[in-house]
Amino acid sequence: MRAHQLIPSWLKNYQPKWLIGDAVAAILASMMLVPQALAYAALAGLPPYLGLYAGLLPLVGYALFGSSSVLSVGPVAILALMTASALTPIATPGSAEYINGAILLALLSGIMLLLMGFLGLGSLSNLLSLPVVNGFVSGAAVLIIAGQIAPLLGTKSEGHTALEILLSTIDNSPMSDPDAALMGLIALFSLVIARLGLPLLLRTLGVERTRAKLLSRLAPMLVVLLSIALTAIFHWEQDLPVVGEIPAGLPDFTLPVFNPTMIYQLLLPALIIALIGFVESLSVAHTIALRRGEKLDANAELRGLGTANLLSAFSGGFAVTGSFARTAVNDEAGARSPLSGVIAAIFIALVLLYATKVFTELPVCVLAATIIVAAANLIDLRALAHHWHYDRTDGLAMGGTLLGVILFGVEAGIGLGVGLSFATLIWRASRPHIAVVGRVPGTEHFRNVLRYTVKTQPDTLFLRIDENLFFSNISAIEDRLFAEVQRQKSLHDLVLILSSVNRIDSTAIERLQQVNQDLLERNIRLHLAEVKGPVLDRLGRSKLLQELTGRVFLSAYIAELALRHHNIHDDGQASTPPSPADPS
Amino acid sequence: MRAHQLIPSWLKNYQPKWLIGDAVAAILASMMLVPQALAYAALAGLPPYLGLYAGLLPLVGYALFGSSSVLSVGPVAILALMTASALTPIATPGSAEYINGAILLALLSGIMLLLMGFLGLGSLSNLLSLPVVNGFVSGAAVLIIAGQIAPLLGTKSEGHTALEILLSTIDNSPMSDPDAALMGLIALFSLVIARLGLPLLLRTLGVERTRAKLLSRLAPMLVVLLSIALTAIFHWEQDLPVVGEIPAGLPDFTLPVFNPTMIYQLLLPALIIALIGFVESLSVAHTIALRRGEKLDANAELRGLGTANLLSAFSGGFAVTGSFARTAVNDEAGARSPLSGVIAAIFIALVLLYATKVFTELPVCVLAATIIVAAANLIDLRALAHHWHYDRTDGLAMGGTLLGVILFGVEAGIGLGVGLSFATLIWRASRPHIAVVGRVPGTEHFRNVLRYTVKTQPDTLFLRIDENLFFSNISAIEDRLFAEVQRQKSLHDLVLILSSVNRIDSTAIERLQQVNQDLLERNIRLHLAEVKGPVLDRLGRSKLLQELTGRVFLSAYIAELALRHHNIHDDGQASTPPSPADPS
To answer: Which residues form the STAS domain (chains A, B) (predicted)?
Structure first.
């Protein structure tokens, strides 16, 4: 990388008139970031102030290397949950070992993201289909909500699955703290009202739509500040669990303890965090880029997110990625360039330097309420209906991932989803669509006899196979082929149209050779038509072309012409030598 | 099933002139079966005489329900190895529990084969590609040979992998029995000479080729009888391990002890035994049926093999399937109907009733020699070269299975092979072939610009995607599409030719909608052409068709005509409403 490339192009081309938009957006986004940062750190099982550390330098890191102008990078609920789920089996939440583990996770996934960026391995994220990502996010949101009911009510819960957590919450509920429960529920109620009712109220008051939505996004900060004020005035901190002491000042440069056993245990979780974080962030950035007519560079995104995670680790934070909610605020509030991220970081730094005392008396139950409302927003059952409607197998993959995450946990759920999406893919390919086709009169086009009025021949059968031929579908293809042959008694010639066949594997080629022989027994010649170039190249390496009783035709139309002529003049003797034409 | 169907059709139509061929073939095949049965039972870790039990009733069971006229069903080396590999971790070889386990395995796989036959689930065997089956057989043969070196040399070996077994054989070799080693090596040498040299010798003596091959197949029986005679004459049984007492008489009807834990542990091995046995047997039967112009029925094969295994279990035997070598002998010796199997069973019954004493003095090292020669014949490195040459991924699947079986054992090897064959399938589909196409002048055909001299347009790009669109390849497709768009500056219209696309999943459809928007930003309209019926049906459930900036054309040719006309008269404004035509 050349030296001048270290200065990002947005900075070189910065126009002063952008400053106001960037600054306003930055302040609004950080008003949202502060309570979220505290809450998501708690969700990750970490001291809340570590969320502010994770919300500081990553903003700058992304601004240096990322390609989206308004993506807001920092702590998000899903990665906080994944951090907790990776660490709770191997360390006690809140312990020094646990905090070290969280830093290691951020470091590892940062390194992985950078590697993917430099090696062009962003395609790894293609293992995750949209239904799997949707199902994962919805399932993780359910898991998050299940885990926050206990802190909301001022009690404890344990367990790894949503069911275990909910059952233990119910078991522990007699010990719950009525003050905390009341305050938590009031906070929850206010936040729900603010999200659902406030935009409507503001709009009836004449506030413009985008602005109304924007203002309602600041409700969590308001509720947080109000609860702090009330707690301070009435000294509720003696009865309620509060966030407690936050060390004032900027984070120190930190290096985690490199514990090899722990690193080994965290490799897979870090990879999943990197992939999920990347996919989520990319989809947010892409939506915005599309609206703004900007160009997004997946590799730049990987480098930006990788740097953000490294900086989070070096400043003692945890894994971060692009936040959907804060990016939306940034966008709606008129940010023009990544400078808004840098300004937001300065705002967070000011909070850390001068305002940490404010948040010490923030009740934990209020944080839980903000997490629940944020997570509820991530549950997307409409996506489930949409995928199911579009294709049952896509619906199955999303439903399976969702249930997997809820019932078996974060990683098992992802594993199940990826497995399901590949299994259904292969299942579909194993049941290929095969059409008997005929020529559309007056054209050279051959179409399905069931969908079109077409011309067919009594002694020539045209079969189009709509799938690659490989070991798990070749039996089904054979069965269908012989069933059609059985049906048409006076058959002399069978033409397989391979226009949709992009690959034939060695199992299928072996079976086709047998089919060729079996048809010869019945005095039927086998022809191929519309064979693709790469397929024909490969066929040349097998014995099929030499043994083929019929010919290879450039198109079904040419096959029809040749065979009609042949059958009239030649009385259909199966003696034409194979003469491969050159199709595309 | 109606009553008269219980009498197989070959029996109803039996012609007396077939009898001589059937009888001669039966006697030759059982001459081969007797030493193999004893040897494979030993290979399975069972008392050798159980091999004779497994070689008796299964022949009759298959004759009743199977569809091949000459398939010889009974003990085979591969299933013997799989029996040993499934049972050694859970019982001591030779113990009552172990024998019970072997009977349970035969029973379970018999039930599974029958279920597959009645439920039409024979397609389960489609999970096994040809390279995986080839690799498995070769790998298992190596494993068998590794395990037989110790008995050949009169010593012991332990371990599960080929390497462990060989190392322990070398460790134990100082304790080997020089008498046994000498006799074993002489037997091995004679058998190799018989297999390689005898046919040649017989042919130079004027014996016809098939007959020479046939006679050389009887060499093992000769070597066995000779070794028995020598042992009896010189009383070597005092120095050499011999087969020992064989209970005279036919097997009793047996039911295994139904130990639920053991049944649970054997479910997966039984399924793999059923599938491998079925695939192997079917391929043998198919080769013969093709040569004889017979019709093979996969479901009848499942019922035949299932019954054979049940009868093996009920008579105290182990898992059986069609034997390649004995079927070949049966075929070459002129068998005409399954009666040859029934006659062979009678021959085995006579051996069990009157000739068991003969085999008590058969040295174990000679059995080992016959197993080694039979297994060596199964190693097929030419298949590896063939698959690798045809397609690297097929070669990889075979090589992976082979190495997997040798290094990690039978089931792990199969698992690795199946995993590899699916993984390479998906890997290939993730790197789709995409061609820029143009019209072949004077025709309506569009072909790859790199392979043909074709006509292209400066303002219209025709792209043909040769793969289904799904989550793991849509990124690659997007990248290629935008790279082509970048290359052609004056572009107004992009036509995606979907003639090879049989499915578009919901991830891909979502991304195509974004592509449609992205192209709109650049003032390029997106058109689709040659969309298949089922694909178009599904597209109708998404928003793509409504949002599409271009049109859906029946063919690329029609698209070219329409767009040329349009661009001349309409100055290329992106305003034509989508009007889906009806393609096939």
So the answer is: 450-548
Contact status of B285 with chain A (Cβ, < 8 Å): no
B7, containing H or E segment? none
Number of domains in chain A: 2
Q: Is the Cβ–Cβ distance between B196 and B170 less than 8 Å?
A: no
Nearest by CB to B506, from A387, A433, A541: name it.
A387
Domain identity same for A419 and A445: no
A359/A463 same-domain check: no
Q: How many beta carbons lie within 10 A of that of residue A403, not counting itself? A: 16
Q: Does B503 touch chain A (CB under 8 A)?
A: yes
Which of A403, A423, A443 is a domain's end point? Answer: A423
Domain assignment present for B82: yes
Compute CA B488 distance to the chain's CA centroid, rounded to the nearest angstrom.
49
Low-confidence ranges of chain A (pLDDT < 70): 1-6, 565-584
ipTM: 0.79
Nearest CA in chain A to B432: A502
Residues A560 and A446 in one domain: yes
Q: Is there a single domain that holds both residue B297 and residue B407?
A: yes
For the question of whether the overall pTM of this predicted structure is more than 0.80, the answer is: no
pLDDT tens readout for residues B502-550: 899 998 998 899 899 889 988 999 999 999 888 998 898 888 999 999 9
Distance from CA of B126 to the nearest CA of A (A): 5
The parent domain of residue A511 ranges over: 434-570
- The closest of A75, A59, A115, A137 to A302, measured between CA atoms, is A115
Q: What is the DSSP string of A349-389?
A: HHHHHH-HHHHTT-BHHHHHHHHHHHHHTT--HHHHHHHHH
Q: From chain A, pick out residues whose CB is under 8 angstroms from the CB of B393.
A: 505
Strand order in the sheet with A552-553: A446-448, A434-439, A460-465, A493-497, A525-529, A552-553
> Is B532 within the bounds of a domain?
yes
